[in-house]
Amino acid sequence: MKSVSLSKPRPSGSLVLDIFIKVFLVVMAALVLLPLLFMVSAAFMPAIEIVRMPYRWIASRIEWSNFYKAVAGNDGNFVFIRNVMNSLIVSVTVSSFTVLLSAITGYGLAKFRFKGRNIVFMCIMMTMMIPFETIMVPLYMVVLNLGLQNTYRGLIVPFLMNAFGVFMMRQYLQTFPGDMLDAARIDGCTEPGIFTKMVLVNSGPALASLAILTFRQQWDNLMWPLMVAQEKRLKTIPTYIVSFAEEKFADEGAMMAVAFMASIPVIVLFITLSKYFVGGSTVYSAGKE
Fold first, then answer.
1. What is the DSSP letter of 251?
2. The last residue of a domain, from among 69, 93, 108
3. Residue 5 per-residue DSSP state
4. Nearest residue to 87 via CA among 211, 240, 198
5. Would you give the DSSP letter of residue 246?
6. Is residue 41 domain-shared with residue 183, that is, in the same domain?
């Protein structure tokens, strides 16, 4: 006896819509990946082939000297390694403090009831509406008057906290079960113990997402290091890449090579924390207490 399938055929309109959505997503993914593919391809090309039109995606020969020039720099002083370390120090420090301070603030706004809580949260949110360009010059004057120019503190301190991190952690922690926190208090656990042993341990997706976003933002930060770090020993990777474009005869191959190497730490970080980053999408869901 043959089994009879009870599934109904899908409407043709729904099938067409699914195909359209998939094609659209593939096209968008291709547009996003195209600049990255160009960067990787051009990093191994002779400079003359990079500017030749129509562009050849496969190099006639692999130009390994691009990477030597990228590391050596325009003046051959090999400051690239120092600039990479500067970017790592700034990005890791800012990411660590942002994650910790945002988690503490978000936890307080999400799970503690006090007078003016919503007003405090709205004031924090209002700062997100202010473009960085409008406060860049006043912030630079503060750093200059405090004697923080050409120091790591000048590169790090202004970015240790941001409103987006507070918003992100608050939204995530609103979904954290309040009954678990009350049970821990009844058992005699202190508030710092609850935060470190329960809240932080169970907030991996949100913490990883915020860490990746903050690290990438600081790794790509150009304007602020360009203003604060005047000495070569304190410059970061974005300012190092700009130095190639400042030359009268720019070496496009070396420029693409240094851009390719500069993107590796961010890619490695994303791959390492990707499963937490995907799970962190729940931070935008409105939690109920």
1. -
2. 69
3. P
4. 240
5. T
6. no
Which domain does 141 fall in, by range? 74-284
CATH classification of the domain holding 204: 1.10.3720.10
Indicate the helix (H) or strand (E) that contains 134.
helix 132-145
Task: Residue count of the chain, please give it.
Answer: 289
Residues 83 and 55 both lie in one domain:
no
Q: How far is residue 289's CA from residue 284's CA, in Å, rounded to a whole number?
A: 15
The sign of the CA dihedral 200, 205, 211, 214 is: negative
Same domain, 174 and 265: yes
**Residue 176 DSSP class:** S
Q: Are residues 22 and 43 in the same domain?
A: yes
Q: Which residue has the tokens 């190099």?
A: 59
Q: Does 7 reside within a domain?
A: no
* Nearest CA among 220, 210, 79, 86 for reference residue 153: 86
Sign of CA dihedral 90, 95, 96, 98: positive
pLDDT, position 100: 92
Can you list the residues of the chain whose pLDDT is less than 70?
A: 1-13, 76, 246-250, 276-289
What does the pLDDT read at residue 90? Answer: 93
Contact at 8 Å (CB) between 209 and 283? yes
Q: Does residue 35 have a cis bond before it (omega within 30 degrees)?
A: no
DSSP state of 51: S
Spacing of C-alpha 59 from chain mean position? 31
Q: What is the pLDDT of residue 101?
A: 92
> Can you tell me the distance from the alpha carbon of 51 to that of 176, in angstroms, rounded to the nearest whole number?
54
Whole-number CA gyration radius for the chain: 25
